[in-house]
């Protein structure tokens, strides 16, 4: 079959000259795919809207010898609340970059696709910061790096009130193991309980929880350390968020 269908969110679109764009898509059917969209930058192109970043689009893709190309496409969901909102675009860029960093090409993960889409939808009205934190911990879990939160990740024993969080050990470590683990950062039972909620609750339920600013900052720090360790890279969009966006309450 030379043609195949894919429902996908556009993660990135790069101009390649002559009105063409190289698209990085995250699709339900095939995971991450790279495709060339010919002529879509031209003002007359009817495909322009459907190939914008963060758009859910139904693609018909032509299988090429080296690079696949868009045969037809139709925008399904535009997430118009993102338009002109720098903070929203910053968070959406970060989510897209995270999906890109977490996934190899052509490896479908329907759960990650669904989580990505649901998180984008919920961003319209909700606690964006908590949604993004929940996305981070759920997404890293969905690709096989679910942090251990129920007992000490090192000795597997139950932990007391004093706890640490260690990316290289894979989650929470107890007060006995903490001092012997190189990257153990102080944590608290309250933060661990919130991490459990972020990991296990459906994103739509998150507005029910209240998390104070101190705990939010700690969770952000710990999850970013965890992601950095497991992805061995720093995120441009995370730096963007830290630089340009002051969380409410600070
Ligand atoms: Zn331990």
Summarize the structure.
By secondary structure, the protein is an alpha+beta fold. It has helices at 86-102, 110-122, 128-145, 189-200, 213-231, 236-244, and strands spanning 3-15, 21-27, 31-37, 56-62, 68-77, 162-166, 171-174, 185-188.
Give a structural overview:
With 250 residues, the protein is an alpha+beta fold. It folds into 2 domains: 3-78, Nucleic acid-binding proteins (OB fold (Dihydrolipoamide Acetyltransferase, E2P), Beta Barrel), CATH 2.40.50.140; 82-244, de novo design (two linked rop proteins). 35% of the residues lie in helices and 23% in strands. It is built from 6 helices and 8 strands. It has helices spanning 86-102, 110-122, 128-145, 189-200, 213-231, 236-244, and strands at residues 3-15, 21-27, 31-37, 56-62, 68-77, 162-166, 171-174, 185-188. The chain has a 5-stranded mixed β-barrel with strand order 1-2-3-5-4. The chain has a 3-stranded antiparallel β-sheet with strand order 7-6-8. The protein is elongated. The protein starts with a strand and ends in a 6-residue tail after the last helix. The mean pLDDT is 92.
What characteristics describe this protein?
250 residues, alpha+beta, OB fold (Dihydrolipoamide Acetyltransferase, E2P), de novo design (two linked rop proteins), three-stranded antiparallel beta sheet, elongated, binds zinc ion
What is the element layout, followed by pairings?
Blueprint: E1 3-15, E2 21-27, E3 31-37, E4 56-62, E5 68-77, H1 86-102, H2 110-122, H3 128-145, E6 162-166, E7 171-174, E8 185-188, H4 189-200, H5 213-231, H6 236-244
Parallel strand pairs: 3-5
Antiparallel strand pairs: 1-2, 1-4, 2-3, 4-5, 6-7, 6-8
Helix pairs in contact: 1-3, 1-6, 2-3, 3-4, 3-5, 4-5
The protein binds zinc ion.
Zinc ion (ZN) binds next to strand 7.
């Amino acid at each position: 079959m030379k043609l195949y269908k894919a429902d996908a969110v556009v993660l990135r679109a790069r101009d390649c000259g002559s009105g063409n764009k190289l698209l990085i898509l995250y699709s339900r059917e095939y995971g991450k795919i790279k495709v060339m969209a010919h002529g879509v930058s031209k003002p007359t192109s009817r495909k322009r809207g459907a190939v914008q970043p963060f758009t859910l689009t139904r693609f018909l893709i032509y299988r090429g010898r080296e690079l696949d190309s868009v045969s037809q496409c139709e925008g399904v969901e535009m997430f118009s609340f993102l338009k002109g909102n720098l903070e929203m675009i910053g968070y959406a860029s970060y989510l897209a970059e995270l999906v890109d960093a977490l996934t190899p090409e052509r490896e479908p993960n329907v759960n990650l696709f669904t989580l990505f889409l649901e998180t984008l939808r919920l961003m319209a009205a909700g606690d964006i910061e908590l949604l993004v934190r929940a996305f981070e911990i759920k997404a890293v879990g969905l690709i096989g790096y679910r942090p251990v939160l129920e007992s000490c990740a090192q000795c597997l024993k139950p932990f007391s009130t004093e706890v640490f969080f260690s990316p290289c050990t894979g989650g929470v470590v107890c007060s006995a193991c903490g001092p012997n683990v190189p990257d153990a950062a102080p944590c608290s039972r309250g933060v661990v309980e919130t991490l459990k909620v972020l990991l296990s609750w459906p994103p739509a339920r998150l507005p029910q929880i209240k998390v104070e600013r101190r705990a939010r900052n700690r969770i952000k720090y710990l999850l970013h350390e965890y992601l950095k360790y497991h992805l061995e890279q720093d995120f441009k969009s995370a730096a963007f968020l830290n630089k340009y966006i002051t969380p409410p309450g600070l």
